[in-house]
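Exercise 4. Each item below gives a protein and its sequence. For each, produce the structure-token representation.

Item: 50S ribosomal protein L33, chloroplastic (Trapa incisa).
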Amino acid sequence: MGSKKKKAASVFIRLVSAAGTGFFYVKKKNPRKILEKLEFRKFDPRVNRHVLFTEAKMKSSANTLNTDLR
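Answer:
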């Protein structure tokens, strides 16, 4: 009888710059509480301005936080 692993409550997301510089921030998000895509106005040092950052998926497969340590 195999026990199922619990699904992680938080996932890492990427906030990608709308300026097209390739700069990004990494943030944790609880997808059960926040259903819509995140958008923030943050500083992009490559253009030296505040620009819109929108949510994108992380590229690595280890994008979940495992809170269940066994």
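Check: The first strand starts at residue 11 and ends at 17.
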